[in-house]
Each structure stands twice: as C-alpha cells, then as structure tokens.
Specification:
Helices cover 54% and strands 8% of the residues. It is mainly alpha-helical. It has one domain.
Length: 128
C-alpha cells in the first residue's frame, strides 16, 4: 500500500495529496499515511506516543537481543546493521516530530495543500 497507493495517489491528485505520508527517511524506519482533513493539533502527538515511541522501544529491544548473541550469523550481523540504521533514523525523526508538536501548527484548509504541506517540513515524504 505504501508504495503503489501513494505513487498513484500523488499522480491522481497532481502532487497535492489529501493523504500525507509521514516518513522517517530512506531507511523507512517509520511511515504512516494520514488523511489531511483529520489532521489536528493532537494527531501528530498521538502518532508519536502511539506509534513512534513504541517502535523505538521495539527496535532497541530487538537490537539488544541480537547483540547478546555470542556468535551472530551473517544474517544476524546484517540485521544488526539494518536495525542500527533504522534506530538512528527513528531517534532523529522522533526529535523532529517532537519539535513539530511544540510548534502547535494549525492547518487552514482554505490555504490549500501546498501551503499546509510545507508547514510540516521534513517529517513528511518529499513530493517529487
């Protein structure tokens, strides 16, 4: 859904989406689609507390379990590297989302998608 739906959605809405893809970055540690008209001041805080923070804990616990292995296999070593990258990316994303929450951004739907989308900076997937 993340790849096919969103690409089609951008094309259909001429790069002015009504579903916004919150994305942590290239390692895809976190991604969530949110309907524009449902966004309010508490949505991003809920996204952080209900999804981002628990995912951080999950990555940290998974990484700790893998690092406890005395002789990790090649696949496990690869998983450790990937989890390290995802964890770093998600920690950075969590800070960016927290900064966004502290700004208390209020959307005005009359301003249009382009203006409102730009208010969220780098917590949203870049529209190409």
């Amino acid at each position: 859904m993340r790849t096919d739906f969103y690409k089609d959605h951008l094309k259909r809405y001429q790069k002015k989406p009504i579903y916004w893809l919150f994305s942590s970055g290239k390692n895809q540690a976190f991604q969530a689609l949110v309907y524009l008209q449902r966004l309010d001041t508490s949505t991003i805080a809920n996204l952080r507390t209900e999804y981002i923070r628990p995912l951080l804990s999950f990555y940290e616990n998974s990484l700790a379990e893998l690092r406890e292995l005395t002789t990790p296999s090649k696949d496990q070593t690869k998983s450790i590297t990937q989890l390290d990258k995802k964890l770093d990316e998600l920690r950075d994303y969590d800070q960016r989302v927290e900064h966004l929450i502290n700004q208390n951004i209020v959307l005005d739907l009359d301003d249009g998608v382009t203006v409102n989308y730009s208010k969220f900076g780098d917590v949203l997937e870049k529209i190409k």
